[in-house]
Structure formats: C-alpha cells, structure tokens
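Entry for flavin-adenine dinucleotide complex. Fields follow.
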Amino acid sequence: LSTSSCPKVCVVGSGPAGFYTAQHLIKGRQDVEVDIYERLPVPFGLVRFGVAPDHPEVKNVINTFTQTAKHSRCSFFGNVNVGKDVTVDELQQAYHAVVLSYGAEGNRRMGVPGEDLPGVYSAKDFVGWYNGLPSCRELSPDLSCETAVILGQGNVALDVARILLSPLDILKKTDITQPALEALAESRVRKVLIVGRRGPMQVACTIKELREMGNLPGTRPEMVAADFEGVPEALKDLPRPRKRLTELLLKTALEVPGEKELERRGKATKVWGFRFYRSPTEILADPDHNRTAGIRLAVNRLEGSGERAQAVLTGEVEDVPCGLVISSIGYQSLPIDPTVPFDSRSAVVPNSVGRVHQAPGLYCSGWLKTGPTGVIATTLNNSFDTARSLLEDIDSGKLDVSVAKAGSQIVSSLLEERGVKAVTFSDWEKIDSLERRRGEACGKPREKLLTVEEMLKADTV
Ligand code: FAD
C-alpha cells in the first residue's frame, strides 16, 4: 500500500463536470491527486455524445480537459462502471473524497398513451444515435415519413431539428456517424414541427440556435401568426436576453422577408416551425402497421406571464399527422448506488454547494448536482464551486486527510479481480488517433468507433 499522505480524490464521470472539478482541485492544492473513473472507454461525456456534430467549436473544451487528464497528478480510468464494477462505498474506502459527476443519463417520459410505439424516440436516444453512443447504435430511427414532431423547444430540440433538415453536404463534413449519415441521406422528412406547451415568450432555446434554424440552407420557417397575438406589444417589458430572442422569433415568424430572403425561401424544399400552446396527450397509431401515424395535442392557454406563466388546458384537442415523434422534454439523473442519497422527485443528489447531504466525504457536481439544465459554462461554474467546497473542507479539517489512502492501487486490484479492464488516457489517445485517421479517409474530423468492443480493441492496434 502507498503510504504517501497527499489528499486523494476520485471523480466519477468524465464529462465537463468531472474534468472541471478535477482541474480546479489540482490547481487549488499542490498535493492533491485526482483519479477520474468513467463508464465508457472514451472520455468527455456529452461533449462527445451530446453536442451537435455541426457545432465543432463547442468541442474545443476537449483541449482543456486533455491538459487536465495529462497532468501528473491526474489519472483517467475508462471502462469502469461505478455502481456495478466498483461501489461508491469501495471508492470512499480508497479515497479521502469522492465527487459524483456522472450526469443525467435517463430521460423524462411524456407519460401519454402510445409513447412506446415504433416511430417515437427520446431526443436523448436520437442524439446518442447520430453521435455514436454505443447504447444507441441500434436505434435505426425510421425516417420514411414526411412530417416529424419534436416535443420541447429547448436547444436540444433545435439540434435535432437541424440534424433532420440539414443538407447532407454540411453534415458530411462533421463527425456525425456514418450510419446516421446514410440514414439521413434516405430520409423523407420534409417538415419538422417544434411543439411547446407555452407561448413564444417562453421558448427555452437560445438566440444562436434560433438564428441557425432561420439560416438553415434549403429550409423555410412556417409559423402560425395567431400564436404571436399580443407578443409585439409585450416586447418592451421583457428582460434583455428574452427580448432579443423574442424579436428574432417575431421577425422569423411574421416579418415579410426582403427580396433575397424571399428568393431563398422560395427555393426551400423543407419546412420547419414552432407550434405553441400545445401538450401531447396521445401518440396515434396506424391501425394496420401499429406504428406512429400522428399525435394528439391538447390546446393550452397561458395563465400569468413571463417565465413563470402556466399552461392551462382549454379542453380543445388537435390531431397532427406525423410518422416520427421525438420527445425532447429533458434528461434525468438516475441513482447508481443505493448507498448514495438521491432525491427521486427532483432527480438530483441532495447537496449544499456540492456537499452531499448526510454523507461526509461525498460531493457532487454538474448535471447530477443541478439537474439537467445549462450549458458547458454553467457546468464549469458549478463544478468549480464543488471543488472549492472540497478544498475548504480539507483546509478546515472537516475532511480528514491525515490517514493515507490507497487510492487507485486498491481499486485497480478490485477491478482486476472482477475482470474489468480499465482504459487509460493514453489508451484513449490511441482510440482518438484511430478515429481521426478513419475520418480523414472520408473528409470528416473523425469517424467514431461505435461499440465498446471496438474501442477496447483499438488500444491494442
Ligand atoms: P455529462 O456530460 O453527461 O458527463 C457525465 C459522464 O459520466 C459521462 O461521460 C458518462 O458516461 C459518465 N457516467 C455515467 N454513469 C457513470 C457511472 N455509473 N460510472 C462512471 N461514469 C459514469 N452545452 C453547450 O455549452 N453547448 C452545446 O452546444 C451543448 N449541446 C448540448 C447538446 C445536447 C444534446 C445535450 C444533452 C447537452 C448539450 N450541452 C451543450 C450541455 C452540456 O453538454 C452539459 O452542460 C454538460 O455536458 C453537463 O456535464 P456533466 O459532466 O454534468 O454530464
């Protein structure tokens, strides 16, 4: 056993939260050592498996994460499923502190009849499919219909809409997977409706994503003018970011376009649009083929105004024919170990500034801590906060680091006993270079490996 008495911390999950927490800990103390355990053989969480392939600039954070991973006081152990291969309790025995940063891998269900029909997918699975998440490889979504309905109006919904409608020439140059590219090449989807239960002043997307939709080559927007009643008048009282977003939405929906834009829209072969004040009540089946043929939407009205406005049912319903429904109503964290406190109502680990309640030595960061909202920058801030809490606890003596801990030595031997082969960061670098080489051959930044088996084999190539 190693007897050095430096503080040993382990982080569970290698998405932005895991890496930003590790980065801040390493920077904060010259003696702290951080080990990162990751379920998959490849690091970076949703930066690899969530962020849209046509947003490569967002993935530049990987450079910073790589620097952290290569730091002499940081180690990466991929292919280790915490909760199954090693328990949180075992990690707590081996380390002075454990930070849970394993994200939000579940998805909220709509809770309506027909939800499990062929043709209905969660955005989480659909995104995982086009981004090469091994567990979504076999999704093979059926894109043979003309109209797709996306439920939810956040950035993930717009990512999905963009991928469904983007010209292939654009996607071909991204790291979207080859099977997804092939399926999209055969896609007959021409119309995408992005449905929200509230109004134009409550959409959850940001202005950049909305602007991208407006500029998407080969497409034109089609909205319902009546949905915007009262919106121009309310504009002046809106807070600034919301005001700019609403202005762009109004412009896209109602303004008569100039000559150039008119010409562009005239040539468009595909259509997208928001539909407001609608909640799903049922997915309608085609009786012959037992697959999705439409969606029944309840018509809502708003009670109150602003961000807190509530959707209230009017009693009216409307049926929209469509062959594809993608529900983008939120990711959800799941418990991974029965010994860890978990608030199943709000689906987060209960914590104060990252300190898990009633669990000394246990911390959390990222989407598991805050719930599945916010961009990478938000995750950075809340992860730094958690690291600060942990460092404070070391300084104040609340976290006892005087007794030496065995850290990865003991965990590695447990894993070996259990037949689990951990992937190191230099193994990942071999996977990375293989993927880049495969991509180069077809003009893409990378061609991802799609199965865990292939990933595990790549490091021996
Ligand atoms: P994750 O990124 O989910 O990381 C969690 C990690 O934990 C994963 O690697 C997972 O494999 C691992 N893990 C899970 N279970 C276990 C286990 N039992 N044992 C070990 N490891 C485990 N933000 C932006 O700023 N720009 C964007 O363009 C953008 N696009 C997005 C698109 C989508 C579809 C989604 C869903 C999110 C997007 N975001 C974007 C938000 C951003 O991805 C999140 O803010 C961020 O990834 C949250 O970080 P996290 O580390 O908490 O979770």
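NOTE: The pocket of flavin-adenine dinucleotide is lined by residues 12-18, 37-40, 45-46, 50-51, 55, 58, 81-83, 101-103, 105, 127, 156, 159, 331, 336, 366-367, 374-376, 379 (CB under 6 Å).
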